């Protein structure tokens, strides 16, 4: 998006050198992503009492959606590297908040069974976490399979970040409407 290089150009051409420079800077972006993911995962514990799991979930998707839209609208090297931190926020959100929600839902289910004096054992947390992990992986496979066609249809890779932004903002709506936070 930023460098507009060509991986298929001759290896001694400017277009290929530009592509290689983009890959190098992209690696720095991945490093920023990893650091921001680790930092945000740590900061979540301090934010949790103030905005709760649902708020953290919404905020993660919203920050990612806004950041990716800015990358697509303003494809600049420095801006893109700075905004790579939003990918870390999304990674941290995606791999922590849903699992915490499952734990809360499991706890609520156990409390309801105790109140009802039921002998029925609750469904295991491990089963729910495994199902959630499978859904995340399946979603990544579907996205990976569909993005090539989307890029070909649009004729630009900018459609990747703009569609990610749109889906993230749709996710915000889903979180606001359908995620129930257990106190």
UniProtKB/TrEMBL annotation:
The chain crosses the membrane at residues 55-74, 80-103, 124-147, 153-179. InterPro entries: MFS_trans_sf. Keywords: Membrane, Transmembrane, Transmembrane helix, Transport. It is a multi-pass membrane protein. It is found in: Membrane. Its main location: membrane. It comes from the Eukaryota. The keyword Transmembrane helix applies. It comes from Ataeniobius toweri. The keyword Membrane applies. This is Solute carrier family 45 member 2.
